[in-house]
Amino acid sequence: MSGSRHRQSRAVSRPSPVSSCFMARLVAIEGLDGAGKNTITRALTAEFAARGATVGSLAFPRYGRSIHADLAAEALHGAHGDTASSVYSMGLLFALDRADARDEIGVLLGGHDVVLLDRYAASSAAYSAARLGEGADGGAAAWVADLEFGRFRLPVPDLQVYLEVPAAVAASRTRSREAADASRARDAYERDGDLQERTGAVYRGLAASGWVSPWYVHADGDSPAELAEAIAAS
């Protein structure tokens, strides 16, 4: 794995003055369901704020705010006929959700030093490719890149962060989340352990190849301060 981690080795001592490093930096946080994307986003927000940087964030899919995201969620819980069985139909719904948020992302970039996205286009690339048995260099990932960054003209992230968490650990977290909150019932993707394993492999391929833009792999247990340093240096 060391060859695909795209990490920079450095000692984390004195925090970088983030506010002087950023010019509307867009950072996408990626990973399996249960990888801890929301947790690391909140930790990074606090870390950057402590360094004097203004931080904006947005989570995808935008459930409850986007008809496309809600349709996708309903499909993954058994609604809308055979929609969920179509890789490209699901990818298109998630892409339309992000396309509708393009102006919102622009507003966030115009008002903050750094904008953190909890999932972005790489999620569709990873899950779509995994469902089709493809790798990071296959047709599905290329289709997502062309659709979202080409036709929909979504802003390209300055850095994409893959949270590298074992699929078994991520699955345990989604089960615990479901048990604690009835409204967090796992969807078809979250219940499919084999899919999660394959998706992790595609994510590692996307990071190793620098899909669309630079990547950084953040291992489970690494500190948010270390990740903030990597973002500031990117």
How would you describe what is shown here?
This protein has 234 residues and is of the alpha/beta class. It has a single domain (17-60, 112-233), classed as Rossmann fold (3-Layer(aba) Sandwich), CATH 3.40.50. The protein has eleven helices and five strands. It has helices spanning 18-21, 37-50, 67-76, 87-100, 102-111, 121-131, 139-151, 167-180, 188-191, 193-209, 224-233, and strands at residues 25-30, 55-59, 114-118, 159-164, 215-219. Strands 2-3-1-4-5 form a five-stranded parallel sheet, with helices on both faces. Helix 6 (121-131) packs antiparallel against helix 7. The two termini are 21 Å apart. Mean pLDDT is 85; it is low at 1-15 and 17-22.
Salient structural properties:
Rossmann fold; 234 residues; alpha/beta; five-stranded parallel sheet; Thymidylate_kin_CS; EC 2.7.4.9; ATP-binding; P-loop_NTPase; single chain; Thymidylate_kin-like_dom
Considering DSSP H and I runs of 4 or more, what fraction of the residues is helical? Answer: 40-55%
CATH topology: Rossmann fold
**Count of separate structural domains:** 1
Kindly report the name of the CATH homologous superfamily.
P-loop containing nucleotide triphosphate hydrolases
Shape: globular
Q: What is the CATH class?
A: Alpha Beta
Helix and strand content put the structural class at alpha/beta
Strand order of the largest sheet: 2-3-1-4-5
Order of helices and strands: HEHEHHHEHHEHHHEH
- Alpha-carbon distance between the termini? 21 Å
- Please describe the biggest sheet, giving its number of strands, its sense, and whether it closes into a barrel: 5 strands, parallel
CATH architecture: 3-Layer(aba) Sandwich
The whole-number mean of residue pLDDT values reads 85
Radius of gyration based on Cα positions: 17 Å
Kindly estimate the percentage of residues that lie in beta strands according to DSSP: 5-15%
